[in-house]
């Protein structure tokens, strides 16, 4: 296939131009540690309220418990998701999605592409939706979700969300069996780099950090701080005393929610959260997410009108 | 008579919902049509991943006009009454008809509803069906408010007859019904216009869609078995998977591929489970070796390379999955080799079983003690049963079971063997979960039976102690299943023990643990127990039954609380109630086996009813006895004797149990009854001692003729009070003898 992409970054670039051409605002990754692309405020918060929205972006994502010191062919504690969110979900979203696969070299006439039931739920975000995992020749390559609720709010209109697991998808397209062997840039480049050249060492470092070294006392303290800070920001009166304007700090508060969520993931990886505590922590993060959602719908971007 | 064709075309419907949804569509629409006066000859519903289809043939072209008459007030009735009648009928005064009858002039409302066309009715019924469709989970999409399982794209709705097809005018949330559909998503995506069901099905097939799910399943099974057969292999049958896969494809294409050499040594169940759960693959077995050697995947498309790319991709995914499984298997085997199964089980101390019932390790310790106690009763070695219980749940900590929970027990068996434990222990690791349902196999190996019983008794007593009993339809801890498990284990293996005693032991284990977790020095030994409770020193179950006979529940709670040094409030459940629960489960179980509930009640009322094997033996004999002519008549004789006696006893205020004297027997029939009772008693007593209920009942049956003859010839309530008393005492003997076999007073009829 002459049209086949040759590197990880080419796949990303093709997705970017494909979705840009379909009218999505191509955003940049959120500058915080998140577990998945959904946590980006461009998805979580923008899925709320009535305003139309269309965005696409790469989101570096961290799942501390998935660290394997760079040895496992498929598992990483830091990986990339490609995220597309369109509100209201267009009627041809499935076709648009299939077009994106074609753009990265997956010809639907040669492969077996299937939409297999998979209802999505994020207990920490108080969010759920219905949709599928998309299989290509038996491999899950994307998550396809129609958001029904976020932060405890019914989504109206409904957003369509597409999440591509970039490494896995790229490995399949490029025919690579171990993620660290995947060409990151063009193999013909003057300095060809593989995924391992970029990330093997960090996978080791973070695996050690996440499983054994991160200070659990500090993590617990930071969790409490983030939780308190989130509440404090949301408790502030809507009117800013300095400018006299109505400024609800939904995004800064939501940053604290993101922090709390990541800290919880780290605590989980450190193995200090028991089964019963686990539920309680998830509940605490969800309470923050809910409070941020409540605040966001009071803002202009959230559809509030004076 | 037109035919109706409906297709609801949507994005992919979850496989597990398709069949019921098609059926729901058929029911909702046909019920609605009939209700609106449109009868039909036949209806059939179909489903594919993207469509629900209903075909109705021989529909009435229109509903019949309906003429309804309602009788109203008299013409000269008060104004208000007439106004009310007009309101309720929606007519005006001049539209009412006047009719004479005997009482005068009566007003009648004659309401004529004209017939409606099929199209009009179908549109109304279908819209209602769509808007109220009972999806287990539905969603909204875009900016609309319609709910469907996934976005609904188009509605095909046509009525057709010899003259042609007409589209039923219908619009729901911007979707206008038409006469077109689409074929296969990739192989024939163009619009197709159809004129009726046959045309629809045929055109779909040309557009690479097999409409009927069972046809897709047959195609899959046929192709899969053929491909396997060609290589001397066989497909492992899995109907659930076949039905699911048939719901994932519109155009099934069966592809068979190899499993990497490196994975062939994994246990076949691991291969099968991994392939099924993750990939929805069928397993292909070599009948000679029993090994799983290949897989079958079902694609939804024909490709230019005959599926080579698809098969290669699937093979790659499978290898990655099986690498994980192999990694788990090898890690687990290493753990077992280094630390044994006990080492593997160590982490269970940190796993909560239930927050009021301690950790899995606590639970295992209780089960082990109980299993050792039960062992003797089921012919197992107590030490072996204890050992088996200690390791039976170790596999819950294995990586393999962490990934595939369905493999619990089975992996335990493999790992127990790898650890060099006896076959009996290994078998118990797998079998102690059984039986899981009413038709599941019941273990027979003594060690397995001991651990299985101990496990279930521990669960039941535990949830009774913390008062989490099943209520109504709620049984979150599957206690009814555990109860049935105990019953089936006991009955199938003819286990003889007093269940109450085992339940008491189980209960005691929980109290001991409760006290321990509350951080108390546990001195709750039996001697102290006896002292606190004021009963003679004995084992705990004796103490418990002693307590039950002396104290009410509240007092029992308080004394137990003192004994175990825990709050009285934490002691709420009671074993007799649990025994009643088990008896209820037993009744349900035996009813299914054809033993009527009154027969069971008659046997439950006898002493020793916590020995379930004995109880059932008695019930079976009694049920068989009552089916005989003698049995049925004897029962009538007994009831008659019992009625006369009870009435006399009530009237006279005495109990006629002094024993009848043959010397007062006047008539031959009376004398014969004495002789017969002597003979029956002599036969029944030893039979009962040997628990030979059939023999006892046969002996009892011999009483039928003498009793019948007695009642025919003899008047019990004789004038002579001596004779009367003697005869009543004679009836009392009949009652005593009959009641020694079962409580016949509980029997109906």
UniProtKB/TrEMBL annotation, chain A:
Record EC number: 6.1.1.14
GO CC annotation: cytosol
InterPro entries the UniProt entry points to: aa-tRNA-synth_II/BPL/LPL (IPR045864), Gly-tRNA-synth_heterodimer (IPR006194), Gly-tRNA_ligase_asu (IPR002310)
GO BP terms in the entry: glycyl-tRNA aminoacylation
Catalytic reactions on record: tRNA(Gly) + glycine + ATP = glycyl-tRNA(Gly) + AMP + diphosphate
Keyword Lyase part of the UniProt annotation: no
Pfam families hit by this protein: tRNA-synt_2e
KW Transmembrane (keyword) present: no
Domain of life, source organism: Bacteria
Keywords, alphabetical: Aminoacyl-tRNA synthetase, ATP-binding, Cytoplasm, Ligase, Nucleotide-binding, Protein biosynthesis
Subcellular localization: Cytoplasm
GO molecular function: ATP binding; glycine-tRNA ligase activity
Enzyme class: ligase
Family recorded in the similarity comment: Belongs to the class-II aminoacyl-tRNA synthetase family.
Subunit structure: Tetramer of two alpha and two beta subunits.
Protein name: Glycine--tRNA ligase alpha subunit
Lineage: Bacteria, Pseudomonadati, Pseudomonadota, Alphaproteobacteria, Rhodobacterales
Chain's gene name: glyQ
UniProtKB/TrEMBL annotation, chain B:
Matching Pfam families: DALR_1, tRNA_synt_2f
Family matches, as SUPFAM superfamilies: HD-domain/PDEase-like
SMART domains in the cross-refs: DALR_1
Family annotation (InterPro entries): DALR_anticod-bd (IPR008909), Gly-tRNA-synth_bsu (IPR015944), Gly-tRNA-synth_heterodimer (IPR006194)
Keywords noted in UniProt: Aminoacyl-tRNA synthetase, ATP-binding, Cytoplasm, Ligase, Nucleotide-binding, Protein biosynthesis
Source species, domain of life: Bacteria
Group of enzyme by EC: ligase
Coarse class of the protein's main subcellular location: cytoplasm
EC number per UniProt: 6.1.1.14
Catalytic activities: tRNA(Gly) + glycine + ATP = glycyl-tRNA(Gly) + AMP + diphosphate
GO biological process: arginyl-tRNA aminoacylation; glycyl-tRNA aminoacylation
A Gene Ontology cellular-component term: cytosol
Annotated ranges, domain DALR anticodon binding: 640-747
Subcellular location: Cytoplasm
GO molecular function, one term: arginine-tRNA ligase activity
The keyword Nucleotide-binding is assigned to this record: yes
rRNA-binding among keywords: no
HAMAP family cross-referenced by the UniProt entry: Gly_tRNA_synth_beta (MF_00255)
Protein family according to the UniProt entry: Belongs to the class-II aminoacyl-tRNA synthetase family.
Subunit structure: Tetramer of two alpha and two beta subunits.
Protein name: Glycine--tRNA ligase beta subunit
Gene name tied to this protein: glyS
